Amino acid sequence: MxxxxxxxxxxxxxxxxxxxxxxxxIAILDIGPISQGHALVIPKEPAATLDALSDDAAAAVxxxxxRISRAILKVTGAxxxxxxxxxxxxxxxxxxxxxxxxxxxxxxxxxxxxLEAQWRPGSPDAEETAExxxxxxxxx
Length: 140
What we know:
This protein has helices at 5-10, 55-76, 126-139; strands at 18-21, 25-29, 39-43, 80-84, 100-105. By secondary structure, it is of the alpha+beta class.
């Protein structure tokens, strides 16, 4: 894995507005926020994508995501929030280091630059879906 901007922030080589830190991860305010309070939760373990992250590092992030989300909601007064995590360039990942976005959402006001998502569900074949599920389950 290449040395990313997040690796440099973790080591303290680049300044960041840290809102949380423990032995396994940091949380920072995003420098280009979509809304007030937009934060990133970043594991200290260097992994480009979630599938490359160890179970221990993933569990550590999972333990703090709810706590950080609650604090952001309380401070910003947001009513809702998104948690986003992208893996790879075609999935819109811009920094090759696992990170989770916590993006507060406000029902009563515009979110600034905004976040748009359009979900276009397909109609998969039932037999193909069942076989795909079996193949995945065998690997787990």
